[in-house]
Amino acid sequence: MTSIVILGAGPAGAAVALGLRRLGYAVTLVSEWRRFAALEGVSLRVLEALRGAGLHHALSEAALPSQRQVNWNGQQHAQNVEFLLDRPTFDRGLREDLRLAGVELVEGRVLSVQSAASGHRIDIDGRQALAADFLVEARGRQAPALGKGLRGPETVSLLNRWQGAPGNTASAVESLEDGWAWMARRADGQCYWQWTVDVSSAGLPGKAQLLDYCRQRRQDSAVARAFFGDEPEADLRLHARSSTAILSPQVCGDNWIRVGDAAMAVDPLSGNGIFQSLSSALQAPAVINTLLCKPERAALARRFHQQRVEQLFLRFARIGRDFYADEARWPDQPFWQVRRRWPDAEIAHAEADFNALRIERAPVLRDGFVDEAEVVITADQPLGIWHVQGVELAPLVRRLMCRESAEQVLAGLTVEQGRMVRSWLLAQGFKP
Ligand SMILES: Cc1cc2nc3c(=O)[nH]c(=O)nc-3n(C[C@H](O)[C@H](O)[C@H](O)COP(=O)(O)OP(=O)(O)OC[C@H]3O[C@@H](n4cnc5c(N)ncnc54)[C@H](O)[C@@H]3O)c2cc1C
After folding, report:
1. Residue 239: CB within 6 Å of ligand 1?
2. Residue 37, SS3?
3. Of the residues 169, 309, 322, 391, which has the maximum number of CB atoms within 10 A of its CB?
4. What is the residue extent of each domain of the chain?
5. Ligand 1 within 6 A of 273 CB?
6. DSSP-derived secondary structure for 70-117
7. Angle subtended by helix axes 273-293 and 11-22, to nearest 10
8. What value, to the nearest 5°, has the Cα angle with vertex 307 and ends 358 and 122?
9. Domain 4-65+80-147+245-335 adopts which CATH fold?
10. CA–CA gap between residue 401 and residue 418 (Å, rounded)
């Protein structure tokens, strides 16, 4: 049996562990608990993705629906509902999901990892070292860097948490002259105010004054005053964490893989961190399966993981850039100036153009392995689309490009398949 060890029991490590168990692998997971209690906002899509990954216990008690208010560029709107994930409860649920799936859990802090082509040695605080043939690095932002990757503007988020009076569950986001703040209140009165600023230009005071400084900044904001009221703050705490967007230079080797924030960590503005960490984690079991059972496809499997992680990272970075650019009140403030330009000037969503579609061979996932197939490359999906509703698109697109009629090309599909493929074609700019 190949021994597989996963480091880190966040959503990414847990999703890989469950996926590997489904493929029949024995898995050991080593993790310590997070050191602070955060609350994080996620969309309904993220809850569905977590459910799809089999993380049912993690979700059962952790998610509270909340009406989110957005104050951006001087405008205020009540946007959609977001769900507030209480991370300590969520992380406990993840451990329960892992236990029920038969994953061997080792509670402990990983001190160091020594890796070679023949395997890995993992040193754990106060325990015997572990040996692994294959290593999954899922320690989030705490995973050691592998060298110089792509980094966004250096950013830090200062979280203030305190006990206020019970009230309605609510959350809000507000742009500020030198950053932005996310705030939330749980029904039990736990309050969170998270202020995200630029490391080089924020002019923050030393550690001893930071808590008072944050409180003052919070009280300067009319939005925060209205949101929290002026009730007393019991047990006020501060926790600082880096929130710089980081893409690791390498995310897969022949006997290791990086997933979640260890592979790419996004700007928390997107509210997509958990979604992104799941995206890279959900594809990892098939990549690992291929590396272990079909070594002749190792290069293809590594390429699949690397390209997908990079593409996802850049897509979200560009969406974030456009959101920063929507705030036009402080164009000369360093925080806004650098973020409205990073990572580049490429558009986030390209216009559909049927005549620009290309057909190429590319790595895809088939039956639990990475395989190669013809895919359709679109401006918005540079890695290609293989099929819709089980219908391979490349042969159909090729025939349409040779001027065969849509009726002929789509004949033979079921009604549902025809409907889905037709709507995909129209979205690509196809004119019947
Ligand atoms: C300020 C901030 C705000 C955010 N807000 C949101 C939000 O509102 N919505 C959202 O979707 N995402 C948000 N995120 C992102 C989200 O937290 C991450 O994307 C997500 O948790 C990544 O999952 P992961 O499994 O990769 O890593 P993590 O969830 O970080 O899990 C890593 C695990 O590894 C463990 N670990 C770390 N080091 C060691 C070690 N040496 N030994 C043993 N175990 C170790 C940790 O204890 C942890 O259990 C935010 C991030 C930041 C920085």
Report:
1. no
2. coil
3. 309
4. 4-65+80-147+245-335, 155-242, 354-427
5. yes
6. EEETTEEEEEEEEEEEEHHHHHHHHHHHHHHTTPEEEES-EEEEEEET
7. 40
8. 160
9. FAD/NAD(P)-binding domain (3.50.50)
10. 18
**Domain 4-65+80-147+245-335 shares a fold with domain 155-242:** no
Query: Side chain identity at 238, as an amino acid letter?
Result: L
Closest CA to 323 of 278, 271, 380, 283: 271
Which one-letter amino acid corresponds to residue 250? Q
Does residue 268 have its Cβ closer than 6 Å to ligand 1?
yes
Model pLDDT for residues 204-254, shown as the tens digit of each residue: 999 999 999 999 999 999 999 999 998 889 999 999 999 999 999 999 999
Which protein residue has the closest C-alpha to ligand 1 atom 26? 260
Q: Which residues contact 96 (CB under 8 A, 6 or more apart)?
A: 57, 58
The fold for domain 155-242 equals D-Amino Acid Oxidase; Chain A, domain 2 (3.30.9)
Tokens matching residue 225 = 């005053």
242 C-alpha to ligand 1 centroid (Å): 11
Q: Give residue-wise pLDDT tens across range 87-139.
A: 999 999 999 999 999 999 999 999 999 999 999 999 999 999 999 999 999 99
Q: Is the CB of 34 under 6 A from ligand 1?
A: yes
